[in-house]
Design goal:
The protein has about 260 residues and is an alpha/beta fold. Helices cover about 15% and strands about 35% of the residues. It folds into 2 domains: about 5-100, Translation factors (Elongation Factor Tu (Ef-tu), domain 3), CATH 2.40.30.10; about 110-255, Rossmann fold. The protein starts with a strand and ends in an 8-residue tail after the last strand.
């Protein structure tokens, strides 16, 4: 099992991306270990009488030269809301890097990345770190409305971006699995990766399985400890009940006992 670290990071940026999503960039005084797309960090929410456990967040960006990493924090509860109020100059305690990463694509692969909600962060990280030419990488980013999307245009250097929104205010109308890229070209991809709400990932997994396409998803079960001790993130799989924080969060869909 890869070594994990507990360290304090300095907050160097906290920027609102929209009404509920914030980009928090933090910097270490020490050299960062290898951090891969799909892994996550557990963050201590300091000075809170209501939040006792660390909160898990996907890693969005890593800069090995500056020893920085970034998270997109979506306000979902008291812990995440408190974190979005952190100030530049404050410190954050992290346990990192945690969990299994996505399978790295082959150089010849054409891949499709599907992200929704807070699942957008690891998909953009994977696009950047895939090592593939832009023309071999497509991303579908889904949200309820245009206002719920974050601006990811600078990632067009690494992938072709496609958008969907439930009300049609940005990109194609409907869910990500209703996007024309997904419905018409799914079989042309060698690998599909997804992260987002359970319903979205199950729909992606179902169609990928029917198409016979390799597919991995990153689960968002409640992960309190990050070490497989508290057992609150158990997921039934073909290998038995596994801890998402240690055996995942990334799983091949064929390992999951979803009704697909």
């Amino acid at each position: 099992m890869p070594k994990k670290f507990v360290a304090d990071f300095n907050v160097i940026q906290n920027t609102a991306l929209n009404a509920t999503n914030f980009l928090i960039k933090i910097q270490s005084d020490s050299k960062l270990p290898e951090i891969l797309p799909g892994q996550f960090v557990n963050v201590e929410i300091k000075n809170s009488q209501e939040v006792f456990l660390r909160r898990p967040f996907s890693i969005f960006e890593v800069d090995d030269k500056l020893n920085t990493l970034s998270m997109i924090v979506k306000i979902l509860g008291k812990g995440s809301e408190r974190l979005t109020n952190i100030q530049v100059g404050d410190t954050l305690s992290l346990v990192y890097p945690l969990g299994k990463s996505f399978t790295k694509p082959f150089v010849s692969d054409k891949i499709l990345l599907v992200g929704g909600g807070s699942g957008v962060a690891p998909m953009l990280f994977l696009a950047k770190e895939s090592g593939l030419p832009r023309e071999q990488v497509d991303i579908i980013l889904g949200a309820r409305t245009q206002a719920d999307h974050i601006n990811a245009q600078h990632y067009s250097e690494f992938a072709t971006l496609h958008y969907s929104s439930e009300d049609g205010s940005l990109g194609e109308i409907g869910f990500v699995t209703q996007h024309s890229i997904f419905t018409e070209k799914l079989r042309t991809y060698d690998k599909v990766y997804a992260c987002g709400p359970d319903g979205m990932m199950k729909a992606v997994a179902k169609q990928a399985k029917l198409a016979g396409v390799f597919c991995e998803v990153s689960l968002e079960n409640l992960m309190a400890c990050g070490f497989g001790v508290c057992l609150c993130c158990i997921e039934p799989t073909t290998k038995g009940n596994l801890c998402v924080c240690t055996d995942g969060p990334v799983f091949n869909i064929n390992e999951l006992k979803w009704q697909i």
